[in-house]
Structures are given as C-alpha cells and as structure tokens.
Amino acid sequence: MLSNKTIEIVKSTAPILAERGVEITSYFYKSLFEAHPELLNIFNHANQKQGRQQTALANTVYAAATYIDQLEVLLPAVKQIAHKHRSLNVKKEHYPIVGEFLLKAIKDVLGDAATPDIIEAWGEAYAVIAQVFIDVEEEMYNKAKNEAWEEFKAFKIVKKEQESSVITSFYLEASDGKPVPNFQAGQYITIRLSIPGEEYLLNRQYSLSDSPGKQTLRISVKRETGENIDQNGKVSNYLHDSVNVGDEVEITAPAGDFVLDGSANSPLYLISGGVGITPMLSMLKTVGDNQPNRMVTFIQAANDGKVQAFEHEVSETVHSMPNAKKFVILQHPTSSDREENKFDFEGYLDLQKLEQLVKEKDATFYVCGPAPFMGSVIENLQRLGVKSENINYEFFGPAIDLKQYQEA
C-alpha cells in the first residue's frame, strides 16, 4: 500500500506528465530498445514510428498519476491493455525492465525537476501499478491455457479469399489438427511473422471476421498502401503477396474486450468504416446464429464499391433475420456503383445521415473504423441523444484520444 506522501508526490506530477508525457515516453522507448533490442520482437514497429505507442503510454502514465489513490477507476483500461499484452505475449518478467527505463526517462527528461523524492515515489507507484497488470494478465494467461493455448501456436492457411480490391481473408486451422478455440464476437488474434529481410519478428493484431463455432478462424486483412507503406504495410502486403494456402503462421489465442453482449435483447446498431467491418461482421453473424429475431441495423461505410467488402455475406445474413436491415454509405461511388444501385447514401456518414438511420436512441451501439471516422460517429450519436454508456468502440492498435477528431 502506498503512503500518503507517495500518493501526494505522484499526483503532483500529473500536470508535468500532461505537458511532457510524450517526450518522456519517446525517450523511454528509444532507451529501452537500445538496451533490449530483443523486445522489438514483441512491439509493433509501425505504431512506434507513427508515435501512437508513445502517446498511448503517455496517456496511461498520466491517468495512473491522476488516479494513483483510486486505481479501481483505471481497471477497465487496465483490462483492455492487458488483453493486448496477453495477445502479444508480454510477461511479468518484462515489467521490471520497463520500470527501470521509465524511471530513467522521467529522470533524464525532467532533469533537476525530477528530485530524488519524485523518482522514489514513482518507483513505488510503478511497482504497485505493474502488479495490477501482472495479476490481471496472469488470469488471462491461465484462461487462455485452459481454453486454448498460452503463447503462440502454429496455424495453417487452408483458404485465401479476396473480399474486395483491398481486403483478403485468411482461413486458419491448427497445424496439430486440434479444433479451433471458441471466442467472443469482436475479439482478435495476434499473428507473428518472420519476413525475409526483417531483423525482428513482426506482430499484428487482426479481428476475427466470422462467427464462432466454425472449423476455422478467419481474419480479413486490408492491404496498406501509400506513403506510409514502410511503416504500417509490411505485414499486410506480405500476407497478401507471399502467404498462401498451405503456409504456416503463428498466432495467439483470441483476446479483447470489445465483444458482443449476447445476453442483451435491446435493438443493436453495428456501424463500421472501411476494414472496421471485420468485428462488426462477426457480431452480425453471431446475432444471426443465436438471436435471429433481434432488431439489428447494420451500417457500412466505404470509399466505393470496389473496396467495400463482404457485400453478399452481409446481405445474406441480414435477409435471414426478420428484424434486421442494412445500409451502405459510399463516399465516392463509381458509375458502376450507381448503375448497380449498390449504396443507400453518398458521402460521409454525417449527422444528417445518422439522424435518418438511428430510430432507437436507447439501443446498443458498436462502432469500429479509422479514428477520424469513429470520432465523428460517436460525437454525432451523442448529439442525437445516445448515452455514452450505450456506445462501444474499438481501436486498431494503441488507444488514443478521440477528442482530437471531434469538433470543439
């Protein structure tokens, strides 16, 4: 238990962390990887280069300083991060290493402002916070070990199918012939690859895009292109171009707390942008299997019909459910899209469109897609009177603050 003095000192540093948190965490990661390059086999290099991991850690450290005397407030965020850690195979022996370099970063970046009392207080606080993570993650590892497997396991690609011009699905079976594990709709797996020419293993997390209870696990991967291909496209392009039926990959057991509440009966809205459709489709099909009479509105936004994935699969599922309906919003529909009448609305999924689509304000909402898309959709749902506790959303990668994507 932390002393009142330690709590007071840590809470007093919160304003400094708010101002210089990203500077501290950037220094931390640089020093950590220089001393322990083997940890690059765990971390997502793209998130490092884009600064997302540094920002996410800075936000976490700031929150820890603010609520150091009320750590139970942070438990939902801890569990979300712990799911990602378990899926990436982060272990308890990593925490002392992280603590050493985090304290070093605070001391080196803040200089004389980081007094011995502050460093000592943060050392004590880090030990308590780390133990919270270790305990939560231990439970998750034990659960994975009992229900599936504990770390990485070899799976074989048994089917590869193009879903759109940019999204391809990979169907996976365990190489040892054992049945695939059960999972909750909305969860993800981590896939680990050794790519020729890359010094370190590369890890990426992909949502499972089919309902549970099948003979295979399915992930659906968007090919990343453009200026940032070196940062975030190595794995997706390798999967698209070089991984084929019969090849093996390593994956961890399903993880994540962005999951469908199968016990709820309230009207359900599943809203996706781009490749964010993957967990939404898993949820839709799961409802179709288990609650076929539930009221469901499936809203899919995409740039055009060429990149829109799972058109037929969504339509078949919706048509099999008497109280389900779907709407497609294309930002830039092609002439072919217009001729084939492939969409319901043109442009962005803005407030006016949501106002037409959302009929039940007390429904349950799930939102997934690029951060700007989610920021806009969530803000507009709240403007329409939807309570924040009824809105669930999922990030691809480290969690960031959606407020930067919302209007002031």
What order do the helices and strands come in, and which of them pair?
Blueprint: H1 4-12, H2 14-35, H3 45-50, H4 52-66, H5 75-88, H6 94-110, H7 116-147, E1 153-162, E2 167-174, E3 188-193, E4 202-207, E5 217-222, H8 229-232, H9 234-242, E6 248-251, E7 268-273, H10 277-290, E8 296-302, H11 311-319, E9 324-330, H12 335-339, E10 345-346, H13 351-357, E11 364-368, H14 371-383, E12 391-394
Parallel strand pairs: 7-8, 7-11, 8-9, 9-10, 11-12
Antiparallel strand pairs: 1-2, 1-6, 2-5, 3-4, 3-6
Helix pairs in contact: 1-7, 2-4, 2-6, 5-7, 6-7
Structure, briefly:
It is built from 14 helices and twelve strands.
Question: What would you say this structure looks like, in words?
Answer:
The record marks 84, 394 as: Influences the redox potential of the prosthetic heme and FAD groups. The structure is a single chain. This protein is α/β, with parallel strands linked by helices. The chain folds into three domains: 4-147, Globins (Globin-like); 153-251, Elongation Factor Tu (Ef-tu), domain 3, CATH 2.40.30; 268-405, Nucleotide-binding domain of ferredoxin-NADP reductase (FNR) module (Rossmann fold, 3-Layer(aba) Sandwich). 43% of the residues lie in helices and 17% in strands. It contains 14 helices and twelve strands. The chain has helices spanning 4-12, 14-35, 45-50, 52-66, 75-88, 94-110, 116-147, 229-232, 234-242, 277-290, 311-319, 335-339, 351-357, 371-383; strands at 153-162, 167-174, 188-193, 202-207, 217-222, 248-251, 268-273, 296-302, 324-330, 345-346, 364-368, 391-394. The strands form two sheets. The chain has a six-stranded antiparallel beta sheet with strand order 4-3-6-1-2-5. The longest helix has 32 residues, at 116-147. The radius of gyration is 22 Å and the shape is globular. The chain starts with a helix and ends in a 14-residue tail after the last strand. The model is unreliable at 400-408 (pLDDT under 50).
